[in-house]
Write a structure and sequence with these properties.
Layout: H1 2-17, E1 26-33, E2 44-47, E3 50-53, E4 59-63, E5 69-75, E6 81-88, E7 95-96, E8 99-101, H2 106-109, E9 115-119, H3 120-133, E10 139-142, H4 144-149, H5 155-159, E11 165-168, E12 172-175, E13 184-187, E14 190-191, E15 212-218, E16 233-238, E17 246-256, E18 264-267, H6 291-295, H7 299-309, E19 315-318, E20 323-336, E21 339-366, E22 369-398, E23 401-424, E24 433-458, E25 464-489, E26 499-500, E27 512-535, E28 538-564, H8 569-572, E29 592-596, E30 603-622, E31 625-641, E32 651-669, E33 672-683, H9 687-690, E34 694-697, E35 702-705, E36 713-724, E37 731-742, E38 745-751, E39 758-764, E40 767-780, E41 790-804, E42 820-830, E43 835-844, E44 847-850, E45 859-861, E46 866-875, E47 880-887, E48 894-898, E49 911-917, E50 921-929
Parallel strand pairs: 1-7, 1-8, 6-9, 13-16, 35-39
Antiparallel strand pairs: 1-4, 2-3, 2-5, 5-6, 10-15, 11-12, 13-14, 15-16, 17-20, 17-50, 18-19, 20-21, 21-22, 21-49, 22-23, 23-24, 24-25, 25-26, 25-27, 27-28, 28-29, 28-30, 30-31, 31-32, 32-33, 33-36, 34-35, 36-37, 37-40, 38-39, 40-41, 41-42, 42-43, 43-46, 44-45, 45-48, 46-47, 47-50, 48-49
Length: 930
């Protein structure tokens, strides 16, 4: 499977690179209903002697000579006629203009020939405001024009500009202070699986910004979408049929402040490592049998296989560790059998190198005294390579029928090497031992999703719209080789050498050689029907649908270990670079042997089947009162571990959730709304959290273990929000929200001893309650002429969260919940000169990283301010753009600590568990549109 996926990437690269497109000047956009943002099909759009009709998605497109002011006439049955003046088609690119139509009032119906007058600037204002103002839920909408004018490269960068949204590690989204496990991603209406097999999250850096039609971040639930979230539902909608042919190229270079100018160490590897593909250098030997067959081999045969697999832990040095990026994207439309066919393709490549410095400590804690169990300093050198692409094809059969095939594939590889020094008290609790340790690893993750969907407007039952879809997704993770080795030295013994920590036992901590494969397969099929009708003199919509989803996982790991019978100081004192040479393996005594750690907990299968149905009403009871309400029912069947009930790994969960939702909007004025919403949603455990897999994490210095008894989290949500849209691009809103979490899932630290006996376990607590207030604003500063091109935006949230658990009697917030979030942005934009610039500031309040127990208090993450800067300039007659990005300018240490004096802040009296610095990232990119 992986070879086929790699071939697909290369074919997509050739496909993208072969574009050569002619330029045309196009006026394009959508016609939307003023009440609810729904697209209007069949609208006549006329300019001079040209007339086109909008399709089922409300799209129109006209080819016009640039540089001239036009008047557009828009007519549709049941709507007021509209004339829009001062429409200028730009010379360098397509011009996008969404148009809002409203239905005539009672008085207007009595007058023939009513024509609504507007101009292009007013219409842009109305459509931009309308996208969010006329939404039926509490949401934030980023339209195509805002995306087009921003210098952002991918969806993750665009989301950083959204008030109230933060990104962890540059790609994982945080909404309302809730960690990424409480968010959900959708692509073109289809729920996406996690892009990380061990984490419930989605990486938004996969989608290039210029293929996005709209981004919608819902903060309240409606039944037509997935009910598995509590923070935010992020909908990514890509373009269908490009209105003009295009081809864009972008290249970039960059570096990191603590990486540039320093020696960068990389493990020895294969010739395709720069593409993130292992060429077989690290693969299992061809002589390696399956686990059961390997177990019955004699020691000599096992060791013979092992010496061909185990590598020495030497490294190569890279003089200048630069970061590189390349993006190609293109699209065209044509005719096939007289039908409109649109194609959009993208190729992405990035190669980033970063060095991280961190200090890890574990403690035995009594009251406010902390005794160190180990104290490690680690330098981690990491090479991240992303190679991927996107291919969308859309066939418009006619204005009422459209079929799309949308594909995305990405190969994300992490090639890392860690160097550790410090002190360990596992073997000498009094004096401790000095240690030297290294870990080398190569993890290749391939994500693929293909979706076929259709939209059809039919005349039956007075006119209904039918949407259907089917999708197939793969998430493959391949770890061909992960090795760890530690040397100990006893400081109380004069002349004591550093000796490799290898004995006659099998270990995941030192002498470990780990191999694993994981394959997730996700299948979706479903559809929905919707019908519009009139009641109370207003437009009403009824909608219902069904989803069938199957997810399968096959996980298999092979934890091998090097061991030594007896004692051989000469062998154990050899350096990392030579200790695992083939000559050092054998069965004659005093040499290394090789074996596999037994146990069925290192492999498992898993399956979920989800049947979901919903019924939803969108009622306009009066011109000022709208309610979107309904019920979603999800039947969830999860099997993890084994299909045999007699197997200790067997876990089977079956549950049906009834998820009601009510979203009410009171239109106080044309630009002011009051929203009230209530709903129930769920967040279910991931396979990894339920599986019995026990995995030693080198960075944590402990073993992470799943829990077969954890349950899903059920969330009750309530929201109220007042919002005012004074003019284009401006907003002021005040909101309050409440969330009740029943059985939230948390990761607990269980200190049962030192070293490898420390574990992290997934557990449920009884419940948690969260209350919050949120202020959002976005204001143009043109009331001062000197600031006319500046826009100030921000979002501030205060959240009170408390966990209640009868068994532990805890008094703390839920893991991952921050008590406050701060987002502030200052943007500068001058269309005439082509300069754009943004300063972003973000900080979240302290939150629990890992929950503690009766003996050890929780580990808190201290607040850390983040400051990013971006500046871009259009060049070469606006066909090119040069952009400078500087992220994490302040480069403050990330500190995680035990709050020993319980003063709710980090100070010198606390026990610092983790101290990490990642450096400031700088990148320079150059783009060109052909």
């Amino acid at each position: 499977m992986k070879k086929q996926l790699h071939k697909s990437i290369m074919l997509l690269a050739l496909f993208s690179a072969g574009y050569a497109f002619a330029q045309s000047h196009v006026l394009e956009g959508r016609i939307l209903d003023e009440k609810d943002n729904t697209p209007i099909e069949g609208v006549k759009v006329k300019v001079n002697d040209q007339e086109v009709t909008t399709d089922i998605s409300g799209n129109y497109s006209l080819s016009l000579p640039p540089g001239t002011n036009y008047v557009i006439t828009v007519t549709s049955n049941g709507y007021n006629k509209k004339e829009i003046s001062e429409v200028t088609v730009k010379n360098e690119a397509s011009t996008h203009l969404d148009i809002i139509l409203d239905k005539p009032s009672t008085k207007e119906k009595q007058i023939e020939g009513v024509v609504i007058k507007s101009n292009a600037r007013k219409e842009t204002i109305a459509s931009t405001i309308g996208l969010q103002r006329n939404s039926g839920v509490v949401s934030q909408v980023i339209g195509v024009e805002a995306i087009k004018r921003s210098p952002d490269r991918n969806t993750g960068e665009v989301l950083k500009r959204v008030s109230g949204v933060s990104l962890a590690e540059g790609k994982y989204i945080v909404v309302r202070g809730l960690s990424d496990r409480y968010n959900q991603a959708m692509l073109n209406g289809i729920q996406l699986s996690s892009t990380e097999p061990d984490r419930k999250t989605f990486s938004f850096e996969l989608f290039p910004a210029n293929v996005i039609e709209t981004l919608v971040i819902n903060k309240t639930f409606i039944p037509e979408y997935s009910g598995e979230w509590a923070g935010g539902l992020i909908q990514v909608n890509t373009k269908d049929i490009p209105n003009k042919n295009f081809f864009n190229l972008q290249v970039g270079v960059g570096g990191n402040s603590i990486t540039m100018g320093q020696e960068f160490r990389m493990q020895k590897g294969g010739k395709w490592d720069f593409l993130g593909i292992d060429d077989g250098y690290r693969k299992l030997p061809t002589s390696m049998p399956a686990k059961n067959a390997f177990t019955i081999l004699d020691e000599a045969t096992k060791t013979g296989i092992g010496k061909d697999y185990v590598k020495n832990l030497g490294y190569n040095s890279v003089g200048y560790p630069e970061n590189l990026s390349l993006q190609l994207d293109g699209g065209f439309n044509t005719k096939i059998f007289g039908k409109d066919l649109g194609v959009i393709a993208v190729l992405n490549y990035s190669n980033n190198k970063r060095r991280t410095e961190s200090r890890n400590r574990f403690f035995t804690i009594n009251d406010q005294l902390a005794d160190t169990n180990f104290d490690y300093f680690t330098e981690k050198y990491q090479n991240d390579v992303i190679l991927g692409g996107l291919l969308n094809l859309t066939l418009k059969l006619n204005n009422n029928n459209k079929i799309s095939l949308k594909n995305i594939i990405t190969n994300n590889t992490v090639n890392h090497m860690s160097f550790r020094t410090g002190k360990d008290f596992e073997f000498d609790p009094v004096n401790g031992t000095n240690i030297l340790a290294r870990e080398i690893g190569f993890k290749e993750t391939t994500f693929y999703n293909s979706t076929l969907n259709g939209t059809h407007k039919m005349d039956v039952l007075g006119g209904i719209t039918f949407n259907w879809y089917g999708s197939f997704g793969i998430l493959d993770q391949y770890i061909p080789l992960l090795q760890r080795l530690q040397y100990n030295q006893y400081p109380d013994i004069n002349g004591s050498p550093y000796l490799a920590l290898i004995s006659n036992g099998l270990s995941q901590k030192s002498g470990s050689v780990f191999y694993s494969t994981l394959s997730d397969y996700l299948y979706n099929a479903g559809g929905d029907l919707s019908k519009n009708f009139e009641m109370f003199g207003q437009k009403q919509t009824i909608k219902g649908g069904y989803l069938f989803q199957v997810k399968d996982r096959v996980y298999n790991s092979r934890p091998f270990s090097v061991k030594l019978e007896g004692y051989n100081q000469q062998l154990l004192s050899q350096p990392f670079e030579t200790i695992f040479s083939p000559d050092n393996f054998g069965t004659g005594g005093g040499k290394f042997t090789f074996d596999e750690i037994a146990g069925n907990q290192y492999r498992y299968i898993a399956n979920t089947i989800l049947n979901a149905g919903y019924l939803q009403m969108d009622n306009n009871f009066t011109p000022w009162f709208r309610a979107v309400w309904g019920l979603r029912v999800e039947n969830f069947d999860q099997l993890v571990g084994s299909t045999k009930r007699s197997d200790d790994r067997f876990v089977n969960t079956r549950v049906t959730d009834f998820l009601p939702a009510l979203n009410m909007t009171f239109k106080l004025t044309n630009n002011m709304n009051l929203r009230v919403a209530g709903s129930q949603t769920v967040v279910r455990p991931e396979f990894r959290e339920v599986s019995p897999l026990a995995y030693y994490d080198f960075d944590l210095g402990a073993t992470v273990i799943g829990n077969k008894y954890i349950q899903r989290t059920k969330i009750t949500n309530a929201d109220v929000r007042w919002e005012w849209y004074p003019r284009n691009g401006e907003i002021l809103s005040v909101a309050g929200f409440y969330k009740n979490f029943k059985n939230p899932i948390e990761l607990y630290f269980n200190q049962s001893g030192v070293g490898t006996s420390n574990t992290f376990n997934y557990l449920n607590v009884d419940k948690a309650d969260a209350y919050g207030a949120e202020l959002e604003f976005r204001k143009k500063l043109d009331f001062f002429s000197v600031l006319k091109n500046f826009t100030l935006g921000g979002n501030f949230a205060l959240i009170k969260n408390k966990v209640t658990d009868e068994a532990t009697k805890v008094d703390r917030p839920m893991q991952g919940q921050s008590p406050y979030t701060v987002n502030v942005s200052l943007q500068y934009d001058t269309e005439k000169t082509g300069w754009t610039s943004t300063i972003l500031f973000n900080m979240i309040g302290r939150r629990i990283l890992y929950v503690g127990n009766d003996q050890v208090p929780p580990i808190w993450e201290a607040p850390r301010p983040l400051l990013d800067f971006q500046v871009a300039k259009k060049i070469w007659q606006n066909k090119g753009e040069i952009k400078l990005n500087i992220s994490d300018i302040l480069n403050r240490h990330a500190r995680f600590y035990h709050d020993l004096n319980d003063n709710k802040k980090y100070d010198s009296a606390d026990a610092l568990a983790i101290d990490r610095v990642t450096g400031t990232n700088i990148s320079l990119t150059l783009g060109y549109s052909f």
